[in-house]
User: What shape does this take?
Amino acid sequence: MAGAKRPPARGGAPSAMIAEIADRLPPINGRAQRADLPSRPEQAGRKTAPTPWPSLPLPTSQEQAQALMMSLGGLGGFREWLIQREELIELEKSDPLHYGYEPACWADADALMKDNDILVIMGGNRCLGGETQIYDPVLKRSLPVSEIQSDFHVHSWTGRRVVVAEARQPFRKEPQTLLKILLDDGTSFVCSESHWLLDMSGLFVPLGELPADAMLFWPVPARGRRLLKLDPKIFFKKIAKIKTLRRDWVWDFEVPRYHNYLCAGVVHHNSSKTSYASKRMVQWMESKEHARIWAVQTTESNSVAMQQPFVWHYLPLEWKTVKKAGVVTYISYTQKNGFSNNTFVAPNGSQAWFKNYAQKLAVVEGAELDLAWCDESAPVEWIQTLRFRLVTRNGKLLLTFTPAQGYSPTVAEFMNGAVVLKSKPAELAGAAHHYPGLPRGQVPYIMKAGPRWPNAALIFFHSIENPYNDYAALCRMLQGKTTVEILERAYGLATKTQGNVFQKFGPANIIPRSALPKEGTRYCVADGAGVKNWFIKWYLIDSAGRIYIYREWPDFQNYGEWALPGSSAEGKAGPAQRASGGRGIDEYKRIILEAEGWKYDAANRRWMNDEAEEIYERIIDPRFGSLSAPSGDATVNVISLMEEEERGLPALYWTRPFALKIDQRVQLLNQKLDWNMEEPLGPLNQPAFYVVDDCHQSICALQEYKACSNTDGRMTEATKDVIDCDGYLLCADACYVDTKLPICVGGGAY
Assistant: This one.
């Protein structure tokens, strides 16, 4: 195969000329068979047309075929090209680790993995014929997949038993060649050649890679109980016949938890993102001696059913069959139990372990890893702990997510504050779609993660990039669907949960420091506290009334996060809330003065404001500002203490805003954030509230705040203090003030 060219990336049915040439081809087994290629006895003694193969498509027209013939030196060259194509297909089937097709996005993911410590992958779905009947065990009825108009239920295989699982409403995809699969018990289903099925080896395999008489796993007898033994006479169905039907629309749907479903009694897979992680995991083990790798899933049964089969699929053949004396190896795999003891050792000493989030987090402690792959719903605590287990060996962390799970706390960890580095056209969403901060008709493709994860990147595996999926123009096929559904299903893009109260805050509100206006009215706002740190923010309001947050304390760079995701929606306190605690009024005054550019004159023991910012007004939490505090023989409130000129500190004067309720303050802020997201940004269509991009606490708070409260109505949101500052500013009716204009003072004089 050396020197063989990969055919151009074109699809479709063979032209008449190709069919004529193919008809003169000898049987595939009639030519010298490569020693490393598997034989295909089912094809012996018969002539074979070119094998349809999504990653090695045939030319779609006579003109294309003629051009290819000319580039290859005529009919003989074209014939050899077809033969080489068959060899490439055989190699892809027999050795997917070294010869399998890889979409272009995989190379982009590799580049990101090289330059970052953490890579987050999110991606789209696969395809059934519209007439295929899907049984809903809750409604106890079967419907053609094309007629299911809402979310529904299916039977799914956990690796140990059959269970009832939730499924998303099916959606239509671009036409493909449909095949009718008739099983030996008389049942049948219609699907595309790229559709994945669970065979007798325990692997999910595309239909096009299965032999004509393949045995498919049939777990129906296991419904509701654990399997103790897999009897081939009971638990397998044989493909009796495959009939080509037509080229027609195909249908797909998402099963968020298990990523598989039963149809005609056999198991169908509907997620392909696992392939990248599984293949790279095995390649990592192959390239590095004594590598240490973890693959983590939600539960042990999900690991056996949805993670381990893919890893087994990509293992080199020589690893599976090694018998050589003296070679360190421990590879034992069965469909029922996965890898023995949830681990295996490669001949070069590399070892992989399969863990799950149901285990206690203590299992992570002490591990030193080269690679950790977390699949599906990885808790934040696991990710935070695993990254420290990778430091010693300079390892990498790979995270794969299903977007159908929505804007989970873990997704929010990386998406909050993330910056789009590269976008792509959103064909399936339509040219009218507008993602904030991007040109119309574009969606994110590569992003730099938020400030909490400076060495992390995100990539979205758009479904149209994968020839095995063959997506196109789903904007027309997803009529009536929400933008959220389109982004999740077609582009792997999770969106914010409805619980977030600032839905319109996004990239359009985040500006670089260089874009901060030079002129404007400046305000300082403080949300005070006793046992934890105050939160202090500085704002600039320009002549058009636009508000900019340009400074905050305590900042992320020096004190860490103010709030962290937790097990509940409100999150939990971050290190910045208690960092270097125990501050008094004088220390807070010094923090504010230094931030604003005041300089301390040690000789005269006084603070100088010659180069300091001009703060028009200081605003404080009205409740906290009124709290009494001891001062000498008297008791005064916090505002009075800030106004004292003692111990070399100047007076700082504060006002208390009108005390509106939290929901009223939220409404005021949403009014400032409002703009028409369906239209381009411009002078007549833009928000009135912005944040400088290094104010990470404010950005994360605006992205995460959900206004949570406990049973007695008290607000418990971890980000509340950060958002309160914004509310106090708006309650004080802060505005732009032109100090050059005369102002009216008491008595009617100017």
Remarks:
- Confidence is low (pLDDT under 50) at residues 1-47, 221-233, 467-478, 743-750.
- The longest strand covers residues 236-252.
- The first helix runs from residue 16 to 23.
- Residues 561 and 574 are 5 Å apart (CA to CA).
